[in-house]
Design a protein that fits this description.
The complex is a heterodimer of chains A (320) and B (101).
Chain A: E1 2-8, H1 14-25, E2 31-35, H2 42-46, E3 54-58, E4 61-65, H3 68-86, H4 95-102, H5 108-123, E5 129-133, H6 137-175, H7 197-217, E6 221-227, H8 231-246, E7 250-259, H9 264-278, E8 284-288, H10 291-295, H11 309-312, E9 318-319
Parallel strand pairs in A: 1-5, 1-6, 2-4, 2-5, 6-7, 7-8
Antiparallel strand pairs in A: 3-4, 7-9
Chain B: H1 2-52, H2 63-69, H3 74-86, H4 90-98
Helix pairs in contact in B: 1-3
Classes of the chains: A alpha/beta (320), B mainly alpha (101).
Chain lengths: 320, 101
Amino acid sequence: MKILFFTGKGGVGKSTLAAAAAWQLSQRKRVLAVSLDPAHNLGDVFGVSLVDGRRNFSATLQLREVDLKKLSRDYLERETSVLSESYHYLRTLNLDRYFSILKYSPGIEEYALLNSIEKTLREEGAFDYIVFDTPPTGLTLRFLALPQVTITWIERLTAIRRQILDKRHTIQKIRGPLKEGEESPEIRLQYDERDDDILKRLRTLDGNYRDLTRTLQGADCGVVVVFNPDLLSLRESERLIEGLRELKLPLALLIANKVTEENRPTAERVTGALKRRAGAAVPATSVALNREFVLGGPAPLYGIAEDLTAHLDRGGTGHV
Amino acid sequence: MTRSKSNRKTSSLIRYCRRIFSDIGALQRENLVSLTCLEAQELENIFALLLLGSFVGLPSPPSFLAVELLPFMEREIQVLHRRAEDAGDMLAEIAGTLGID
């Protein structure tokens, strides 16, 4: 299974090109197109409405739109139920009120997004390609960085937790076994790494994030950077490529979109600058601005003349 | 009759002595362990502070990590509360733990 993320500045045509690539790939392979952008328009590009966020567009192409707000809500509801089970005495308190504030906490939305990607990758093994249409650069880089940031925190917290268990083990050894009928709150605490719920949870999370990082950095994953022939788009794409390099995420393709006869020289200069930054191994292509789209012509939005599969269906991606 | 009475007295004396020695041993062990207990509690406090530090303005991990671990943090939160209550008289607490009068 290959994974493609279409990224770029807002309004450059990520969704259109993600849809076009998904459509072209689906002529030969089974493809799942997922929109992670809160301002969904995958359905608009294909000219269909998605029921419950999903629809089979053809036998080999499935469309999906991720509802971020619902994801965040579901995640917090799941955690609330675990909390109520753990803290019995808190059942009388109004936890919902506390969690209604938590959903505005920074990071929850990115986490919900990451969870959704992880779930999709885990459950949708039947597809040959999963094409993700991502939100604009800032949010995309934040959620792509999240597994690595989280792993660093988990490592630090695990080290402290181990120290705590070590101390508890020492205490238990010095005090010796409990006598009959004797109760000591210190001794009853878990000191074995296999019994400690916090360490177990940290280990599970660590495993999940390492797997996800491995998948995202692997040869089967690739990021497509879409840009327009203009200065703002160039600057943001440069920052995006730099961010991807720091995260060690492989770059699959650079696409200059909305190229016309008038702006072709600029497009070539912008593409050249980005290629220099990305490395010679990363292929680049250009997609012409089709004025029929703007005028609402008969051609569907995803039906572009350029063949993107030539670059995407080759099997290799270049690490930035 | 007299012998059995004396035997009983001796065995109760031995039991009594054994109890004294065992209690002295326990006391020694408790003295030894009290500092380690304090260290363990401090570490639990630091763990909770790191995880929930955003509430008091400390740099903290992504919120969802705190939410993920919150269900298992009952004891650590209790320690954190106790520490916050005792924070006004830390000197007395340290002196008490080290046995300084």
